[in-house]
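Hello again, I could really use a second opinion on something today. I've been staring at a protein lately and its backbone has me curious. You're getting the sequence in one-letter code plus the fold written as tokens. I'd be grateful if you could look everything over and explain what you see. No rush at all, and the record is pasted right below:
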Amino acid sequence: MKIILLSDVKNVGKKGEVKEVADGYGRNYLIRNHLAVEATKKSMEILNQQKADEKSRQDELKKQAEELKKQIESGTLTFTVKAGNEGKIFGSISPAKIAERLSENFDVTIDKRKFVDNDNLTTLGSHKVRIELYKGVIATVRVNIQPQ
């Protein structure tokens, strides 16, 4: 029996996949528990439409990420901190602080977990920090740390 999975099923497949399973397993477990539907002509058309909608939605998200990347890379973030004699700063500039400053300066909300280089900045000078905005879209933010 051919079925279309409505959710991930262990040892069977992932959501949206078309699989061949035993008739009893398909009817008595998967379909009855709303984990799958029978793969008819109509259900296949619905699945193809859903996949097309999802693809267009993902393309739109990637396009937005590209625009955001251009906006972020156009500017520089400047932090003024207390520093010692050898260029070491007291404390550090964390990805959370950088995300907060991006929010203030560019009106952009970025999660601190999106930073590729997840290290704290501990020295004076100019640094480049990479942020993954979307799969394959990585923006580079220039961060300038100056002494007080």
Observations:
- The mean pLDDT is 91.
- Residues 65-147 form a domain with the Ribosomal Protein L9; domain 2 fold (CATH 3.10.430.100).
